[in-house]
Design a protein that fits this description.
Distance between the termini: 23 Å
Bound molecules: inosinic acid
Shape: globular
Helix content: 25-40%
Number of helices: 14
Largest sheet: 8 strands, parallel
Length: about 400
């Protein structure tokens, strides 16, 4: 198997790479995250916005799996499916969704919004408000979780109604209004869940069994990561992270594959850095240079439309995530955006309280105090958009790539 992993804070253009690689694989697999992710894939004259469904879906010969570690918003996923169906894509044949996957229910969305307004350690996490954190919390908590399998079980009605009632009380306690809670009336949720179950039934499968069979049969599998390794719940810039293992270490647990099946790990990073939401970002540029990167790179969120924070390439952070993810190859994106600068900077160390360090501190407070130590490189000031071979790169652009390598 081959994995594509984001090495920064997400939005590294992984979707573009996955779309390029997908035709060489038999299976494309999503294994963590949910509708907080989003990518726009352009195929021919059509533009597709996908949040859950792997981008392999655009290739008729590729099977796509959504495995146990993903959290699914059924309504959003059904919308994506309808969009694909309307364009003649046969999702019933090419998409399998794990019955073990957990569902983002309407109450998770409300809870995310209410909690997101609060500050953690002086700053809001700035989540995507897609209910991701509350859903993963219920999954780990085990009592209020709803899995895809629950939608097609005979006893689903009773359980979903009980959970909906408990959630109403919880959300009222968090300050939700009765009005807001209209959409989670037990009878209403039950009815919705029944519809979701019917619509999704043809795609629901035991993806773990399917995936292990495929690997044992010698099939080529591409694992598609969502978000980036610096947002990993265990290894990222906690608590300013997402609620899943978004670094390379998450593949096995989320998809249900033993480590021995993973040979190639492609780490994807931008030639600069971006971050959306709260949390420390040592190389952030709040000046004109930052704005210039944002405009040239069209750095606005796919899912939320929020402007992304922009800054120089952080080699301390990326070296950490590349090692953590077991990267065997590096894919450097958005070089064209840097074609318009006289000088470029790469952060090669941090100054933390007068000490020079080359590791990423474990605490967000420490990271916030880190001052980047920069190396300055020459810009190339000429377009690289049409380069298809290393020799097409201006020497300064090549030197920039080499330095990162
Ligand atoms: P959540 O995943 O919605 O809980 O958001 C937690 C943090 O991860 C916030 O800082 C989000 O902005 C960030 N985040 C989540 N998904 C993405 C993504 O796909 N790209 C970039 N940032 C993301």
């Amino acid at each position: 198997g081959t994995c594509v992993i984001g090495l920064q804070w997400g939005d590294e253009a992984k979707g573009k790479l996955v779309d390029l690689l997908a035709p060489r694989f038999d299976l494309v697999v999503r294994y963590q995250g949910g509708a907080n992710a989003g990518h726009t894939v352009v195929a021919g004259s059509e533009t597709y916005k996908l949040h859950h469904i792997p981008s392999g879906i655009l290739h008729a010969d590729v099977q796509n799996l959504i495995t146990p570690g993903v959290v699914i918003n059924p309504a959003t996923m059904i919308d994506e499916m309808k969009g694909l169906l309307a364009r003649g894509i046969d999702i019933k044949r090419n998409l399998r969704v794990s019955e073990r996957a957990h569902l983002v229910m309407p109450w998770h969305m409300i809870e995310d919004r209410l909690i997101n307004a609060q500050k953690v350690r002086g700053e809001s996490i700035g989540t995507t408000n897609r209910g991701i954190g509350p859903c993963y919390r219920d999954k780990v908590g085990r009592t209020h979780a709803i899995r895809l399998a629950d939608l097609i079980e005979p006893h689903r009605d009773e359980r979903i109604a009980t959970v909906a009632q408990a959630k109403r009380e919880l959300l009222l306690g968090l300050g939700a209004s009765e009005e807001e809670l209209e959409i989670i009336k037990p009878e209403m949720v039950q009815e919705l869940a029944a519809q979701w179950g019917e619509t999704l039934r043809p795609m629901i499968a035991d993806t773990t069994d399917y995936l292990l069979d495929a690997l044992e049969d010698g099939k080529q599998v591409l694992f598609e990561g969502a978000q980036g390794a610096l947002l990993d719940i265990d290894h990222g810039t906690y608590p300013f992270v997402t609620s899943s293992n978004s670094s390379g270490v998450g593949v096995c647990a989320g998809a249900g594959v033993p480590p021995r099946w993973i040979q190639t790990v492609i780490g994807v990073c931008k030639a600069y850095s971006t971050r959306v939401g709260g949390g420390p970002f040592p190389t952030e540029l709040t000046d004109d240079t930052g704005s210039k990167i944002r405009e040239l790179g069209r750095e606005y969120g796919t899912t939320t439309g929020r402007p992304r924070r922009c800054g120089w390439f952080d080699a301390v952070a990326v070296r950490y995530t590349a090692r953590l993810s077991g990267v065997t190859q590096l894919s450097l994106m958005m070089m064209d955006v840097l074609s318009h600068f006289d000088e470029l900077k790469i952060c090669i160390a941090y100054d933390l309280d007068g000490q020079r360090i080359t590791r990423l501190p474990s605490s967000a407070e420490d990271l916030r105090r880190c001052v980047p130590v920069y190396e300055t490189l020459q810009g190339w000031n000429s377009p690289v958009d049409d380069a298809t071979h290393v020799d097409d790169f201006p020497p300064a652009a090549l030197a920039y790539v080499k330095r990162i390598e």
